[in-house]
Structure formats: C-alpha cells, structure tokens
Model the fold of this input.
Amino acid sequence: MTGPARHLLLVGGGHAHVAVLADWIRRGPPPGARAKLLTPHPALRYSGMVPGWMAGEHERLRGIVDLAGLAAAAGVELVLGRAGAIDPEARVVTTGAGERIAFDVASLDTGGVGHASAMLGEDPRLLEIRPIEAFVERFAVWAESARERPVRAAVVGGGAGGVELAFGLRNLAGARVRPELTLVAGHAGLVPALSGAVRRTVARELARQGIAVLAEDARVQGGALMAGDMSLEPLDIVLAALGSAAPEWPGAGGLATDAAGFVAVDAFQRSLSHPHVFAAGDVAARTDREVAHSGVHAVFTGPKLAANLRAALEGREPPKSYRPRWNNLYLLTTGNGRAIASYGPFAARGRWVARLKRWIDLRWIDTYAGLAREV
Done:
C-alpha cells in the first residue's frame, strides 16, 4: 500500500485500547482516518476491582469502563462481536458471526484465553477468572444461592490473582457463614513474583483469615479436586487464576507468534511479521524485553500504543516504546477493608492501603467515565 493508511480496526476492548479511544477523544482522529472497535461487550470490566466486588466493597457496576460511550465520543464505530480469524495479507478480520471487516492498520487487544480446564481437567464446579465478564456473571449466579448455607471452596493459583480471589471469596458479601476455603498455591508458592516481605505478609493475612494454603499442584481426578495426593472434597465451587493462554486465531492467520502462541511484537507493539498489525496486553509478547502479562503493564502500554497507531495512520514511523519501570506498585485487596501493598522489596498492610487502592482504581475508572460523556 502506498501513502498513509486510513482505516483502523481495534480488535478487543482491553486496557490498552481504552487509551487509544481516549487519545482520539482528546486530540481528535488523525486527518482522514476512520476506525472501528470490534469487541464482544459494550463495557470493559476492570479485573482489579472484581475481588473487592465479591467481598461487597463496591457495587458490581462500579468497576466498568463504558466502551460504547468512549467509542461514540471518539467517533469510532462500535461492532459487537468477537474476532474469529485474521488474514493479515488481505487485511481482513472475520468475526465469529462471519462478518468480514477490512482494515489498513489493525491493533489486537483481546486478552488471553483461559486454560484452567486444560491444566486441571474438566469439572462443572470450575470457574476461572478469564474471560472476566463470564466469570462475574457465573459467580453472581452462584453467590445468590450460596449466601444462606455453609460453603466449602477452593481457589487454585498462588499468584496475585489467586490470592485476591481467595480473600474475596472468604469475605463473600452477604454470606451468613464465611466460606471454608483452601488456596492451592502450587509448588511455586504464594505470589512468587513478589518480594519475600510481601510473601510473608500475604501468608500471615491468609492465616489470620483462616484460609488454608497448600503448596501443591492441583488436578481433577475421578471427579475430585486433588492437591498433590490429597483430596479436597467435598467442594461446592473451585475458582482458578492460572494465567492465560494464547488464542489460536492470530497464529492460525499467519501472524508471527512466540513459542506459547502469543503475537510476537517489537518495542513499538508491531507484529514481527506484519508491521501494519499491532498487539498489546495479554494477547501479545514483546520480543525485545520481558514484559509480564499484567493489567498494570497493559494500562501503561496504552498511551504508547495510541501514539504509535496515530503515527501509522499518518504514514510515520512509531515514536513510542513502553519500558517497564524497575518496579511497579501492586495493591492486593484482602476483602476485609484492608489491602496489601507491594513495591520492590517493601510490603505494607492496612486500611490506608485499601483507601489508596480504591482511590487509584476509581480515578482510572472515572477518568474514562468523564471522557465517555463528551459526546
């Protein structure tokens, strides 16, 4: 193609694409450019606020970003659907419903896909955190039936996501009796990516709340959830936070991927095989440096991606690269009005940490709420 590209297709309504919509609202679209947003839901649920919702710290609708409103304010056409295939040579994305959407420049921010059933085995009691909207819907239905009776539950996954799910479920909003809960952290143990001080603080809080922790790998065997050689039955529900797998369709369409199937991108979030395709968030893998799949990184990547997409639409080279800080602030809700802070080697716990987390979360949400009203 000669000359600057003009038709942008945003595939997925993730954290990074929210920043792209905000850029178009604040600065206007690049001259002559048009865009579509293909996403299965008209709102983005912020996963960092879900454990707090489980514990009744805020309402269900408080932790969402109005994608439809942002798209309207940005002059971006909203298409409700899910990508099923991409042909980067023909520059076409096909939705699950069979609609073909052409593009000059595409950006993928669909997130990864859940793989708990593949890792653990099939179990009708299993609810995994991805996709987040499906998790919230299923958990809300289950919680309605569980608040009036004793519940035995397990959470699988010792990372920050699993720990927060455990705290949220232990403090289930409206429950007459707090659920009896075991956290199956795996051989890597609790929050292995964080400092020793944070791991100790998390372990003490879990013990304080009566949540049992097993440093064993879980699996479903004969209809029972096992931790090592131990059966955890009987159980009413199993929640899983085991990271994400790559969706199959980007690689199947010919985009370069890493060994795990995530879209391989350079420092500017461009596909290594098709530089008119960008990708960010959990669907992508940086090849120039290690960037963990985390909402924190997706949020910070967003403004850089916005600048690079604007440049691509104007026929310029991308100017911005996201470089992770030496450390990031992580705030883990404990479901009881407190939270745990992690920053490098430092850890803290208390109500003030919960207030800080709430302020940061709601500031992010409310910034986009304000922009969505600029129609």
Summary: The longest strand covers residues 34-39. The chain is about 30% helix and 25% strand. Residues 351-372 form the longest helix (22 residues).
